[in-house]
What we know:
Mean pLDDT: 78
Radius of gyration: 27 Å
Low-confidence stretches: 76-100, 177-194, 332-350
Strand order of the largest sheet: 1-2-8-4-5
Distance between the termini: 6 Å
Structural class: alpha+beta
Largest sheet: 5 strands, antiparallel
Amino acid sequence: MNSLVRTGIVGPELVTLAAMKNWLRVPVSVTNDDNDITDLIQEARVQAELITNCALVRSTFVQYLDHFPGWADREYGYFATAGMSGGTGAGGMGYNRHHRHYGEIKLKRPPGVSVQSLIYIGTDGRPYTLNPGQDFIVDVAAQPARIRPIPYTIWPLTLHVPAAIAIAFTAGYGTNSDTPTPGKTEPETVSEDLNPSWKPGATWQQYNYLVDANGNVEVQQNAGPVVAGATLPVWAAIGSAVADGAASWLNCGPIRGFWTPDTVYTGPWVLLDFNSNLQLLNVASLTSQTIGAVTFQLVGVAPLPWSSTLGGLTADNGVAGAWRCLGGYLALGNTGLSVPNSPEQQAAFTIDFTLPRTVTRAVKALVTHWYYNREPVTQGGVSKVPHHIEDMLGGVTIHDFAPTP
């Protein structure tokens, strides 16, 4: 079962009472029908949402699922006995690089804005919380929005009860405005506003980092605390260092995404671990450990036991101290909270679809139709949504026939 509950409306209705009365040519001084017109605006918006399958006003939702995708295949494989295929969890929802979409969950009522959390009931009957950016990736550019496990992990098993999974998310169009234009991608923030940036006379510890104006990660090399100089240094090329007062900055290049198995890394190399910390390659070169095509790696459990301590080391493929922790990376839509709200590939952007103006006009037209046809003209007559209303809403209707469990 896949059900949806709207828990709140956080945006304004699509049409104000004053704008609707102006459209209806009802004088401002005539207030007898104000309550009815207000109700009709909401009812027309609800009808438009049914036609388009969209959240036309910004709202919060909880989507309930009985289980994660592929649960039957996973349990069949895990509990298989002799003479049966699978066994020990080898089949089903183990990570398969050729069928990555198997673990995908689509969120109803597009367009998606953000996912707050995912709570599931484990096989022990206890609730567990998974967080976006740490345990799963959110793709709000897609319509409908979708979530997947962090790369090389899979969803956990749940207790066999209805609505074992609850996904809290926000969806819906933003209000009409001249900027941003409908569907335009607006910068959420500048990386320098979130991550440590250079400041004159600032104090730095060893292995602290900052992001320079070129988008490269500069790592402070000297034993700290040390005090930076009074003027901005000229950043060195990638792989080289520059002095800055008592500090020394090594240019380690840009952040290069998530860790992947069976990959050759050569320094300098900075990646993002599954705990939202930056990790710097601490050896000249490395082939990361292998994870098979099918694995039983669960969401919330990283393939490597990443250190979260500044300067801490993590082994990889038998190489001790392969990676060094540089601390938390905040350009994940995170404005200071410990939990980011979007994946690395969308680090500097929020997808905010503003309401197409044709929807506003469609709601006005539908309210007009209902307002001026409040009583049947002929006995036994049947009315429906006018064709031109469906045509106006057709441009934002999203048809999705691919099932989500």
